[in-house]
Queue: 2 jobs
Job 1
Amino acid sequence: MPSSKLVLIDGNSILYRAFFALPPLTARDGTPTNAVYGFTTMLLRLLSDENPTHLAVAFDKSKVTFRHADFAAYKGTRQETPDELVQQFPLARRTLEALSIPMIEIDQYEADDVIGTLAKRAAEAGFEVRVVSGDKDLLQLVDSHVHVLLTRKGITEMEHFDEQAVAQRYPGLKPAQVIDLKGLMGDPSDNIPGVPGVGEKTALKLLASFGTVEGVYEHLKEVQGQKLRERLEQHRDDAFLSKRLATIACDAPVEVDLDSLRYEGPDPARALAWFRELDFRSLVDKISEEMSHDSTSPQPSAEPGRPSTAWDGFAYDVIEDVQAWREAVSAFNEPVGVMMDFAHPDYHVAEIRGMAVAAPKRAYYIRFGERLELSDVRPWLVSERPKVAFDLKSMAFALDAHGIGLTPECGWQDVKLAAYLLNPQDGDVELSEVFARERGQELPPREDATREKWLAYTASHLPPLFESLAYTIRMQEMERLYQEVELPLAFVLAKMEITGFYVNREKLQAFGEGLTERIERITQEIYELAGTSFNLNSPKQLGEILFDKLGLPALKKTKTGYSTSADVLEKLAPMHEIVQKILDYRMLAKLQSTYVEGLLKVIRRETGRVHTRFHQTLTATGRLSSSEPNLQNIPIRLEEGRRLRQVFEPTYKDWVIFAADYSQIELRILAHLSGDEALIDAFRHDMDIHTRTAADVFEVPPEQVTSLMRRQAKAVNFGIVYGISDFGLSQNLNIPQKEAKRFIENYFEKFPGVKRYMDEIVRQARERGYVTTLMNRRRYLPDIHSRNYQMRSFAERTAMNTPIQGSAADLIKLAMVRIDRAMRDAQMDARMLLQVHDELIFECPKDELPALEVLVRDNMENAMTLSVPLKVDTAHGPTWYDAK
DNA sequence: AGCAATCA
DNA sequence: TGATTGCT
């Protein structure tokens, strides 16, 4: 049996060294991390190089120690520890916690003393001991079983000192004489005086002759050199004091049992989660690599028939009959990873070939066929047994097509959702990207030939992956957002996608035919006015016609040429009748191509409905997005486009479309977040907020607010929500930037709480590197420190906008989850169809309308309690158009 | 501010 | 990929 090996680390010394040895380094949130980084890399290096059986890190507990009783000025010349280092001590402690490494500190004693005491005890108990520090004083501890590792220039480079190495570094010196050396030399860094004029050379010579400080003074007369003798005589007390100060107390009251320092290796999930939080990317890679190879850390066994973490040797069993399935699944008593084997890359094509079910130590591929059907695994899929998936919404969608309805109560967790909450800026990511980011592991390529193995392999990794994500989510206080909002919402969204929205194809085609006629007519008119035909859809050709041929002024340019955007064309409209026709053409063409043709393409033949996809893990703010088709941008502003909504009908004849939207949700959230009294007051009195803003900003009574004033105030309110810039507002209102600036200044004067909030949130973003929403959804803003004005300003506006937009997203998502549950509880037939950021669209039988209205309004208005009331407007009608 | 779709 | 337009 190999002997026990104890590694003792001088935490303070290493952190101090690391801080000054490494360039500045910060986490995403701006916290300095260079010292912790060095500390951690050193720890990991030690673990792999020394392979300790026992391990501890010692810290100084208090500034005042027993040494100060002896010499008040001890360490008196030390500079104040820099703030950037002070901040890192708690991080170092949490690092040790994450790595499960014991920490020791004792009142009145320094880390040295703890180390000396433990080293001595351990050596007596037959341990090999390694002491790690940056402080040469520790060399006094060296003996045949205690070696000292001193950090070299960097931090991971170590110089190994045994007795021989000490004698080499200080010619002829024994480790025990280190204190005598220091007694004579002193140590300016600790304000230990020593004997002035005695340096290392002289001290070593003296000690070679007389052994100790005591020996020197006993034989003072024999010392060569009168001046030296005089100095020694004069500073006798200093010499003895210095020796005492340098002497490590090997009898400190350390009430720690050596057994309790036994080191079993870190918990990989905790360690990785913590390193991820610190943004130690290279360490995340490194440690996951080490853990998958290091035989001392807990690993799945590599026995025959059992999976190892490595792809090549990965083994899994194929299950094809009910009996084997039951046996396999009943043997799991831990969270199980599940990967569905879709026959098609699009989950809306809900064909399922099989599924992988695996934990780190056992993996199966379940092949569906005659002897085992999906319905056989249904009880397990809907049970409360803990199961981990990647993209639950797609599973819930596909399984529903096979009569298996997953609910939030079914014991599922979702790696994709968890990963999104931790890094929303990455958008919709693949499983392989999460693996790469969280574990530093490359996933093998997904190939047809190894499909089943790939699924089993990845499934086996899902549970630990989820564990580490969940740990960080808890640390960032997003557990409620995950458990009570995003996770249950996935099931709600799956249901909405499954339901779809009925589209009256004939109406839509007729609408399109009307458009075609108008487009043809207007195209001819434009060609006549231009005197030539050209591609109206090409901004380049259009620009040539307008600005070169017709000689209209080019008001704005783009990177590639003239700008022909709507705001430019609107200014040119009075100058030539072709311009308005082009604007009309643009509108009609948009309606035709995007909405009529686009919608017709995605109506499902079988259902006559469109089944949009809601992306729950895409936006940086927490909003949903919608695609194929995007039902979140169906026209409404202009009547001609709005009519398109007439093609969206209820499923059944006697049903209606019901819509409920939050009134001024973002400004209400701003009122709450900022605590601005005027804004809060306005909403408590349910005023028309734009009129009220106009009255304040233009200093007139509300009755005298003109429509222009209200329009301008409305733009200011928008600007405020988006994080105002005078440039942006001037563009919006088509006014000089100076005037826009005055509007904003006026606004902030009337709403000082808003001003304070905006300043504070930007300050917070700078300090922490991120901003948060009401439910602690987080968004990192690394550009907030950019030297580039544009990028920095953008980050600042994002800092102002994200808490507002993101909190609104939190709010409506929470409402959706509750509404879904309430509708199920009440066994209603009504269905939620769409979410459009601040509104929800339903279809329901006419007779359910009153109950649905109450239920929806209640859950939306009371989703959260803010300092202003939440107001919901509702409407209904025979089509979406009529629900206004 | 945040998205998606279309076209060249 | 960029320009444009649709939505909140």
Note: Residues 183 and 242 of chain A are 4 Å apart (CA to CA).
Job 2
Amino acid sequence: MLSTTEENYLKALLQLTLEQADKAEAGTNELAAQLGVKPATANDMLKKLREKQLINYEKYGKSSLTTEGRKQAIEVVRKHRLWETFLYEHLGFSWDEVHEVAEQLEHIQSSKLIDRLDQFLNYPSFDPHGDVIPSASGEMKIPAKKTLNEEEVGHHCKMVGVKDNSATFLQYVDKVGLRMNQPIKVLSRQPYDELIEIEVNGQKSSVSPRFAENIVIVCNDCELQKNNS
Amino acid sequence: MLSTTEENYLKALLQLTLEQADKAEAGTNELAAQLGVKPATANDMLKKLREKQLINYEKYGKSSLTTEGRKQAIEVVRKHRLWETFLYEHLGFSWDEVHEVAEQLEHIQSSKLIDRLDQFLNYPSFDPHGDVIPSASGEMKIPAKKTLNEEEVGHHCKMVGVKDNSATFLQYVDKVGLRMNQPIKVLSRQPYDELIEIEVNGQKSSVSPRFAENIVIVCNDCELQKNNS
DNA sequence: TATAAAAGTTAGATTAACCTAACAAAAATA
DNA sequence: TATTTTTGTTAGGTTAATCTAACTTTTATA
Ligand SMILES: [Mn+2]
Ligand SMILES: [Mn+2]
Ligand SMILES: [Mn+2]
Ligand SMILES: [Mn+2]
């Protein structure tokens, strides 16, 4: 059985390697920073996790999860997000309060507990932050990335990045009220001028296709793609 | 903030000192046995807890909780029993499955979490084993002990001890179906012969006053007495 | 390409929680 | 009371997870 610390390393490695979809590996310093420990500390743990066949790691090289390591990491993420959902939906915690407590709850060891919690919550697909909850079988669906311009009317999505990094554009994004990871609903698309009407945090605004094609989003309503290499 | 281990020592000391209501102290070996560690290990921890002013302890002496130590211990018991109640009532865990998981959950650090859980459960007074749940303010009510013969009709209680330790009596207790800590309901008292009709685990039986006065019980329905020295 | 910077590793130390083995004090009992 | 048993303590050691300081390798850049 894994220690809380080992679980945290695997989860951190999963998160870092999911961020950059292309290369599924992370450096020692990067991992140490993510976990708030010194590189020397992370280095020790990397050797230990390699011994346990949970990661691929070679001296001076980048690290990546093995199939078993990935499975374990996904299980931790599943627990984290189910607990966040419980705290948010049943105990009246707010969006920003759930994470800290879920960091503790995700390490409770009881498969019966997590299965029953899943059932109690009615098998939710997303946590309060809109992140996908992995299934009991360890499948973690990753919603497709696209631009806001390509999003369908009526769908719910969230901004996960921008294509234009100019100050002008970023200031405009701010002004429109868009924030990273905040839920967005696409209300309509005007046939006359192609303006897209969106709702963010209760506020409605209209944006141009030019603007929208520089906003990268993930859609919660579109077909989900499994990601379980 | 206390470590999980420190919390476990305080809780164990509370439990040991509640058992023998007269002398509120426990020996090093006794405590070590309760926690499943060696006396040498417990000895180290006793010194540490004394430094933190959580227990009273002197070399070769018995240990007892300070006011602060007792407060902390009661908080852990409160968390344990609220979680047990949650698992039992909302996640369909059985009587005997809840304890193991609650041993982990009782160490989650979040006062908001436990307050909200209490509210969610509608401020329960007893856990699934019939044990009293301490209040948010740290009051731990201890139900009055009395004999089954003194118990009122209609009340719910549980056996916590016997006054007669003869084999004959104990075998009779077994035969009637009484088990330690198992819920008992007093159904009636016949005016004619004073026989007491009780229900245990769905089974009804009648016992004599002679028998009943040798069964020590605690009543869940009687006035509770605070125990917060 | 030579040098500087960044990234990664190693050695040695610390802390918490545990252990065993040897010893000391207190309590029980002969 | 003397002896034995029980109880409690100490010394010294282990493991997991952390650190700092010094070192090495790799990568970037002048
Ligand atoms: Mn989170
Ligand atoms: Mn989340
Ligand atoms: Mn319990
Ligand atoms: Mn209980």
Note: The radius of gyration of chain B is 20 Å.
